[in-house]
Amino acid sequence: MSLRKKIKEILASDQKDYEVVINGWVRTFRNNQFIAVNDGSTIHTLQVVIDKDSLTEDEIKKINTGAAIKAQGTVVESQGSGQKVEIKASQVTILGEADPSKYPLQPKRHSLEFLREIAHLRFRTNTFGAVFRVRHSIAFAIHKFFNDKGFYYLHTPIITGSDAEGAGEMFQVTTLDLKNIPLTNDNEINFKEDFFNKATNLTVSGQLEAELGALALTDVYTFGPTFRAENSNTSRHLAEFWMIEPEMAFADLNDDMDLAEELLKYVIQYCIDQNPDDLDFLEERLTQEESQKPQIERSEMKLIEKLKFCVENDFERLTYTEAIRILMNSKPNKKKKFQYVIEEWGTDLQSEHERYLVEKHFKKPVILTDYPKEIKAFYMRLNEDDTTVRAMDILFPGIGEIVGGSQREERLDVLLERMKAFDIPAEEMDWFLDTRRYGTCEHAGFGLGLERLVQFITGMSNIRDVIPFPRFPGNAEF
Ligand code: 4AD
Ligand code: MG
User: Fold this and answer.
1) Fewest CB within 10 angstroms: 83, 209, 446, 471, which?
2) At what angle do helices 276-291 and 450-458 cross, to 10 degrees?
C-alpha cells in the first residue's frame, strides 16, 4: 500500500505516529533543519524536520525555495508553535532543484503585476493557490447545482457561423491563406473556399444553441469558453472567458431571476463551506490591499461578511425605468460627478451607474429588468408597451454586471420583426427560427460570467488574476 498522502489530509487528521510519504515544493528552509513544504492541496505548509546526518552537505544545499522534494517519515506532534503536527523525516529526496540565484519566486511579497508576467509560476504563491482552489470549487458547485436540479449539461460549439449577441465583437476563424485571399467576382472575400465553406468565428455565447436544446430537454446549461474581441482594457473584461448559460423551457423572466439568485447563493455558500482557509487568507490579503487606499474607497464589509450578506439577503429587484429615476435624482448625477451624466430614459447604464445603485443606493445585489429594446439583443421578449424587453441584469458590489439574461421572444412574427430591426438576415438563422415554427413555448435563460463570480468570491480586483492565463488586447502569452 502506498504511504503517500496529500498535506491537506495530514493536517486535517488528528492521527499521529504513523508513517507517510509526502511530495511538494519547498517554501522555506530554516536552520538547516525545518522545511516548510506546500503541495497545493491546501494553503498551509507542512513542516518537515530533517535529520541533518541523513543528508550530505551537497544535498542540503539543494533544499531551496521552489525545489520539489519527497519526504518519508513519521507524523508527530509538533514541538514548535504554529502547527499541530509535523513530519520527522527519515528520508528526504530532492526531485527537482530550483537555483536560488535564478528562481523568481523568493519568499517575499511580490506585486500582482509582477506575478502576471510570470503567470506560469504564480500558481505557487499563496494568493494564486487560493484563487485557483476557489475557482475549482465554484466550477464544481455550478455543475452540482444544475445536476441536482435535473438540468442537462449541453456542449455547444466553439466554432460557429453565428453572432449570438449581434454585437460583432468576434474573432474570425479561417484557414484561408492571408497572403493570397481568394476573392469573388464582386471583390469580396470568397469564404466558399474557406475550411467550412463559409465565414466562421469563435463563439461569443452558446445561448442560441442552448435554446435549441431546451426546446427538447426542457432544462439545459452550457459551461464553456466564450470569446469577445472587444477592445476593452478593464479590470472586468477578458477576450477569452468562461460562461455558464442555463436555458429553461416553460419558464418566464421571474423563473429566470429566481434561478440565477438561487445559483449565486448556492455557489457562494459552497465556497464558504469548502474553502474556509483560502477565504480567510484572501480576506486578509484584501484587507491589507484596501488599507493602502483612501477610506472612502474601502469596502464597508470584510470579504467573508460580504459573502454571507449576499447569501442571507434577497436581491433587490426593480425595473430599468425605476433605476433611471433613482440615478437621475442621485447626487453624483445632479452634481455631474458621473463621467457619463444620465440625461434621459433610454441611455445604456455604465458601470459607474451600476455600482452606484449596488454600492451606494441599495447596498446589496440588484436585479434590473425591462430594459429599452434598443439597447438589448434581438432575441429578448418584447413587452406589451412595445418599448421595453424582458431582460434582466444582475449587478454585484465591486463587480457591476455579473449576469445578463432574458425571457426569449418565442413568437415567430415578433421575432422576425425584431431581426429586421437589427438587420439580422433571417435566412442565415433558419435553424433558430424553426424552434419558433414547431412547438414554440415560453422560455428563458441567462449567462453568468465565471471570472466575475470568481472575482467577487475571492475579492481579487483584477479579472486577469482569476483565470490561469488571461487573454486581453495585446496579450496571449503562454
Ligand atoms: O450579458 P452577456 O453579453 O449575455 C450573453 O452573452 C447572453 N447570451 C447570455 C444568455 O442569456 N444566455 O454576457 C453574460 C455575462 C455578463 O453578465 C458577464 O458576467 C460576462 O458574461 N461577460 C464577460 N466576462 C468577462 N469578460 C468579458 N469580456 C465579458 N463579457 C461578458
Ligand atoms: Mg450583458
Assistant:
1) 83
2) 80
42-87 pLDDT, tens digit each: 999 999 999 888 899 999 999 999 999 999 999 999 987 778 999 9
Instruction: Report pLDDT digits (tens) over 315-325.
Output: 999 999 999 99
Give the closest residue (by CA) to ligand 1 atom 1. Answer: 404
| Ligand 1 atom nearest to CA at 238 | 26
Q: Is the pTM of this model over 0.85?
A: yes
**DSSP conformation class of 185:** T
* Structural contact between residues 87 and 75, judged by C-beta atoms closer than 8 angstroms: yes
SS3 label, residue 307: helix
Half-sphere exposure of 200 (CA within 13 A, CB side): 16
DSSP 314-368: PPEEEEHHHHHHHHHTSHHHHTT-SSS---STTPPPPHHHHHIIIIIII-S-EEE
Q: What angle do CA 268, 274, 277 make, to 5 degrees?
A: 105
* Torsion sign across C-alpha atoms 356, 362, 366, 372: negative
Residues 6 or more apart in contact with residue 285 via CB below 8 angstroms? 127, 459
**Which residue of 171, 243, 432 sits with most ligand 1 atoms within 8 Å of its CB, as the best mutation to test the pocket?**
243
